[in-house]
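ok trying again, last paste got cut off:
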Amino acid sequence: MAIGLVFVLPLVHVAVETIRIAGRGDLVYGTQVDAGRGIVRGFDVLYDWAHEVFSLQNQRVIVAAILLVVIASVVRRRLDVLAVGVLAAAALTLVFAAQTNVAVSRYYLPAYALATVALVLSLARLPAVAQVAGLVLLVAVVRTSVEAAHDEVQVWVDEEDAGAALVHVVADANETGCPVAVAGLDLETSEALPVLVALQHRTVAPTCVGGATYFVVGPLPESNALRNACAAHALAPVLEEYSASVFSCSRLRERPVRDPTFGLVEPARLVALRALRPKPS
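nice, full thing came through this time. structure:
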């Protein structure tokens, strides 16, 4: 009983804070928000993105844990309160994470770990034959998980290498003395790029010739206006990646372009408004 109370008390605090955030809002990263996503809507966000950031195999482990808790309770003709409590705690961690309105893999990890605990607890309640079969399946899952994790890490390494290449190319472009304009990047990249470029401390001599302009564009709609600011057949790729690409524009167009933020604006003015401004850390 005492062990159960020690386990439950922290969860009571999490439950109370989740209800507060969902109902009236709270400080999130130092910013006052009006309210959380709400329990139902927030949980829907995590559920909708589960197939993108949480592997199908991991989802099956959670489903298997729930089924095994039910099977163990039926076989023993008694509800396993501890296993059910662990699953409830797993659900609570998802509800709490859902208030951020962001779906990333780390937000699923507490629920996954707790579901695994419930699975093992229920497996231990079953006959020896079922335990052996369950252990064999768990070993198979672990082996395939290691292989999948290696592939995911490699994808992450490739993305990091692409990000480093982007920083180096933009830093080189900035050091030439030519204008560098940025548009359409995601929030994290747009905030990090000026700082990372400033940290490069390049000593390249200015070589900007012929009024060239560099465009750093991402996948968001703002990038279209910046691309259109370049004259026809004057845009040449320097680096093309999924998250961001760098182009060299040898000549700006003469007519105004429509930007979703600044409206109808002259190309040179748009370049100035979207100019990269390195920020020393």
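cool. DSSP finds nine helices and eight strands in the chain. Residues 163-273 form one domain.
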